[in-house]
Specification:
This protein is mostly helical and about 190 residues long. Helices cover about 90% and strands about 0% of the residues. Helix 2 packs parallel to helix 4. The longest helix has about 45 residues. It is elongated. Keywords: Membrane, Transmembrane, Transmembrane helix.
Length: about 190
C-alpha cells in the first residue's frame, strides 16, 4: 500500500518519526483519495439517474404506443423510474452529509471513507437491481411471444452483466478497505505517540 511504501522510504532515509515531514504529503494524499472517491460516486449517481430516467421513459413510451401493450414492460418502466428517484434522494442526502465533516486531515479521511462506503452500497444495490430488470425483460419478451433464442440470449446477457458488476463492486470495496486501513494506521500511530 502507498502508506507503507512512504513509511519504508522515510525509515530508510532517516530515523526521525514519520509524521515530522510527511504530514503535509499524507494530507495531500488523503485529499487526492477523497477527490477520487467523490468523482467516482458523483459519476455513478448521475449515470444511474439518467440511464434509469431515459430507459424507463423510453420503455413506458414504446409500450404505451405499441399494441398490444405489455404489462411487464409497464412494471419495468415503473421500476426504473423508482430506481432513479431513489438514487436522487440518496444523492441529496449524501451531499447534505458532506457539510458535517471538518477540514482536518482526520475529517477529510472520514469523509473519504463515508463516500467510499456510500459507493460500495450503491454498486451493490445496482448489482442486485439487474435481477428484477432481467426478470422483467425476460417476462416481457416471453409475453410478447418472441423466439426462445431471444430469451436465451437475453438470459446470457443479464448473467454476464451481473458478473461484470460484481467485478466493479470489488474494485470499490478494495478502495474503501484501503481507506479503512489508513485510518486504523493513523489512529494506531496517534495512540503510540
Amino acid at each position: 500500500m502507498e502508506f507503507d511504501e512512504l513509511q519504508k522510504i522515510w525509515d530508510s532515509q532517516t530515523k526521525e518519526p514519520l509524521w515530522v515531514i510527511n504530514e503535509h504529503g499524507l494530507h495531500k494524499r488523503i485529499l487526492a483519495k477523497k477527490s477520487q472517491a467523490h468523482h467516482i460516486t458523483n459519476f455513478s449517481e448521475l449515470l444511474t439517474i439518467w440511464v434509469n430516467l431515459g430507459a424507463g421513459s423510453f420503455v413506458l413510451g414504446v409500450n404505451f404506443f405499441k399494441r398490444p401493450e405489455n404489462l411487464f414492460m409497464y412494471v419495468m418502466a415503473g421500476w426504473m423510474l423508482v430506481t432513479a428517484l431513489f438514487v436522487v434522494v440518496s444523492r441529496i442526502r449524501r451531499l447534505k452529509s458532506e457539510t458535517t465533516f471538518d477540514r482536518s486531515m482526520l475529517g477529510e479521511l472520514n469523509e473519504a471513507i463515508a463516500m467510499a462506503t456510500y459507493q460500495v452500497r450503491l454498486s451493490r444495490l445496482l448489482r442486485w437491481n439487474i435481477v428484477p430488470i432481467g426478470a422483467l425483460s425476460l417476462l416481457s419478451v416471453w409475453e410478447g411471444g418472441k423466439s426462445g433464442w431471444l430469451l436465451v440470449v437475453l438470459l446470457i446477457f443479464f448473467v454476464l452483466v451481473y458478473f461484470a458488476s460484481g467485478w466493479e463492486h470489488r474494485i470499490y470495496a478494495v478502495k474503501k478497505r484501503e481507506l479503512d486501513v489508513l485510518l486504523k494506521k493513523l489512529q494506531t500511530e496517534e495512540t503510540v505517540s
